[in-house]
Amino acid sequence: MKVSTVLFAVFSTACAVSAIQPHNGGSDLTARHLRLSRRAVIPGLNKTRRSTSRRCKPRPKKSDNALVAPTSSGPPPEPKKKEVSSSSGSGAGLLQVQSSCGDIGATKETTNESGPNGHINWLNCGMESGGWNPQFVRVEDIKTVDLNQALQDPGSPYQACQPFVPIFQKYGGQFGIPPIMLAAFAMQESSCNAETTGGGGEQGLMQITQEKCGGAPGGNCKDPDFNIRTAAKFFADTLNRNNGDLLKSLGAYNGWFPSMTAAQAKEAAHSGCCRCQKNMDYLHQFLNGWLQNKNAYDNTLRLGKFFNLDICLNL
Questions:
Q1: pTM of the model
Q2: Domains recognised in the chain with CATH numbers
Q3: Half-sphere exposure of 60 (CA within 13 A, CB side)
Q4: Fewer CB within 10 Å, N- or C-terminus of the chain?
């Protein structure tokens, strides 16, 4: 038998063995899936094409730093450009997430009971029956108007926030929160009046409570930079504790909690602290009002359906 024939047979056998063996063991595949699940925001972004070559090529060494193990020894394909998902925070369109509470009911324009981030019945899922069951929505899923774009409208409610926009942008970027969301908290809490003191001693733009005032410059808890940074960090920490669950975190900011019923939300209505009720229209007003550059307190388009705080007006 010729030497070339022997070499060819050995080479063919090696190729066949390599072809039937997976490039990674089961544990490596699990780790890869975990890495992909953490990174995959845009469907299809992390897909890789299999090599169409039928030649037997040397198996590459595994690298702990590679997201996907290469399947050929040739140069890797150029990375795909990241595209903005239709469900990105600042993108056009309607909220699109998985729902176990029926139709999201999102509408392009904000109405009394709906808007780009869903219908009030969906946002309040379960509250009028067994208890509030917030659906999982991330910050990057929601639809918002860019704060700079909002301020180009002379009628924007955020005109009152003009002096503080650079601070909202600074801490929004630092804590991963859309600047308009921080400005929305300020509008909802103080109408962007840095000198506001709440009925319970809450301080400044974001109405932070007294126990959060430690370290305020000169003891001034109303200092805009300190006040906004403190509130931004608090909300970012709340999001982290809730594993990125935005609805649960926003609800907590207004005293809501999972399984809360309508009766529980309104139980303070006839107490000595009527305004201690939980505003049942809060999520709709925040997500489909303030974040869409609309004044949630404007009676021209009154946002909500419960208005359970109205009973407090004459008290």
A1: 0.70
A2: 1-83 (no CATH), 120-312 (1.10.530)
A3: 14
A4: N
- Residue of 205, 203, 206, 210 whose CA lies nearest to 194: 205
Is-contact 312 275, C-beta < 8 A?
A: yes
Q: How many CB atoms lie within 10 A of CB 172?
A: 20
> Is the separation of the CB atoms in 147 and 168 below 8 Å?
yes
Output the six-digit token pair for 243.
Answer: 């594993």
Residue 91 has which token pair? 């993108």
Give the bridge partners for 197, in sequence order. 203
Cα end-to-end span (Å), the chain? 106
* DSSP type of residue 178: -
Region for residue 140 given its phi and psi (left: phi exceeds 0; alpha: psi -120 to 50; beta: otherwise): alpha
- CA torsion sign, 189 to 256 to 242 to 94? negative
Residues 279, 284, 286, 288: what is their CA dihedral angle, to the nearest 10 degrees?
-160
Q: What is the pLDDT of residues 88-100, one digit of tens each?
A: 344 458 999 999 9
Tell the residue number behind the tokens 């509130």, with chain if given: 231
- Residue 241, Cβ neighbours under 10 Å: how many? 12
Q: Write the single-letter amino acid at 94.
A: L
- Can you tell me the distance from the alpha carbon of 102 to that of 58, in angstroms, rounded to the nearest whole number? 52
Hey, CA dihedral for 231, 244, 250, 302, is it positive or negative? Answer: positive
Q: Which two tokens stand for residue 92?
A: 């056009």
DSSP E strand stretches across 50-110: none
pLDDT in tens, 155-201: 999 999 999 999 999 999 999 999 999 999 999 999 999 999 998 89
Q: How far apart are CA 118 and CA 134, in angstroms?
A: 12
